[in-house]
Amino acid sequence: MNTIFAFGLPGGSEWIVIILVVLLLFGAKRLPELARGLGKSIREFKKATSEVEEDIREAMKEEPKKQEKPAEKPEEKPEEISDGSQSK
Fold first, then answer.
1. Nearest CA-CA partner of 18 in 31, 1, 33, 36
2. How far is CA 38 from CA 14, 21, 44, 48, in A?
3. Is the dihedral of CA 49, 55, 58, 63 positive or negative?
4. 5, 9, 18, 79: most buried by Cβ count inside 10 Å?
5. What is the pLDDT along the chain (88 residues), one digit of tens a residue?
6. What are phi and psi of 74, to 5 degrees?
7. pLDDT for the residue 39
8. What own/partner pairs with CB < 8 Å and gap ≥ 24 does 9-12 have?
């Protein structure tokens, strides 16, 4: 069973057959338009991936905000009893 992508990319003669098939399907006049469209789409894809990578790098650079500790309450001291008696 022979498949084109069984062992990697097609060789020289396979590329020629692929190009001839594309020429027959789309015609010589449409090929430059298809190539331009393909180039634009590849450019847009690369731009989008680089923007996502940049966003991830920026997010990694930002230090996580330290959690603020709640305001400390003054320590409650037991009431001092000056006369020695306890109130009930």
1. 31
2. 21, 18, 10, 15
3. negative
4. 18
5. 455 555 677 788 888 898 889 888 888 888 889 889 999 999 999 999 999 999 999 888 876 655 555 566 666 666 655 555 555 5
6. -60, 145
7. 95
8. none
**Which residue carries 């009930």 as its tokens?**
88
| For the chain, counts of helices (H) and of strands (E) | 2, 0
Q: What is d(CA 50, CA 42) in angstroms, rounded to the nearest whole number?
A: 12
Q: Please, what's the b/e burial string for 56-77 (b: 16 or more CB within 10 A of its CB; e: otherwise)? A: eeeeeeeeeeeeeeeeeeeeee
Q: What residues does each domain of the chain span?
A: 28-61
